[in-house]
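Propose amino acids for all 215 sites.
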């Protein structure tokens, strides 16, 4: 079964405590938190104070996805706020290996996120140093977008790279994940499914998580 990571970008920010309680009571293992700066992506989401408050409301894994430029300036702060896993974008990090070392030295699991247009082959020289690859299956910046079908090919390419190198790396998929396409995504090689609108906009979010977790 895949790990389910509900994306709080789609949650009701006026009811964050209740949303955390729902996820705590669900089969989700991670909480996915999207941090956007309005520079790397054309949107602004939330920042450190919200992460800190969510940390107080759950003991589950906080999976923080930095869609920001110069993430190295904030890595220590997100560790202090309670992040367990921290992913930075390959496109935003000219010194990626240094960024990954920084994350690991702080005691977090390190991930590299990759946009839909960036070749999977770009990960070849960093794959042995990371814990997660976060494949964007939509263009980053906004929730509620449709899954890009070519992502399935990219997942298979990455899975082959991981298998051939005997690396211990999770494949995480973020964007447009639904109960209708989850089986195909998992079959291609995904380990973690980020689901935002499919969960929080559902009439029964816990059931939506259950359905994804049981695929």
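Proposal:
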């Amino acid at each position: 079964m895949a790990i389910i990571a509900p994306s709080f970008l789609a949650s009701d920010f006026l009811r964050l405590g209740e949303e955390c309680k729902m996820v705590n009571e669900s089969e989700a293992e991670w909480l996915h938190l999207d941090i956007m700066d309005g520079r790397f992506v054309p949107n602004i989401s939330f920042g450190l104070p919200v992460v800190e408050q969510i940390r107080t409301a759950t003991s589950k894994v906080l999976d923080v996805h930095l869609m920001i430029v110069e993430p190295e300036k904030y890595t220590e702060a997100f560790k202090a706020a309670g992040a367990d896993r921290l992913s930075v974008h390959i496109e935003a990090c000219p010194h990626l290996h240094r960024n990954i070392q920084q994350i690991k030295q702080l005691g977090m699991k390190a991930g590299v996120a990759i946009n839909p247009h960036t070749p999977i082959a770009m990960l070849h020289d960093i794959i042995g140093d990371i814990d997660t690859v976060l494949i964007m299956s939509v263009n980053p910046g906004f929730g509620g977008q449709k899954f890009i079908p070519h992502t399935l090919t990219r997942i298979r390419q990455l899975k082959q790279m991981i298998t051939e190198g005997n690396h211990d790396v999770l494949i995480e998929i973020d964007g447009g994940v639904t109960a209708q396409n989850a089986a195909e995504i998992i079959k291609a090689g995904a380990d973690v499914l980020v689901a935002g609108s499919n969960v929080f906009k559902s009439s029964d979010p816990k059931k939506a998580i259950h359905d994804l977790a049981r695929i």
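The first helix runs from residue 16 to 24. The two ends are 7 Å apart (CA to CA).
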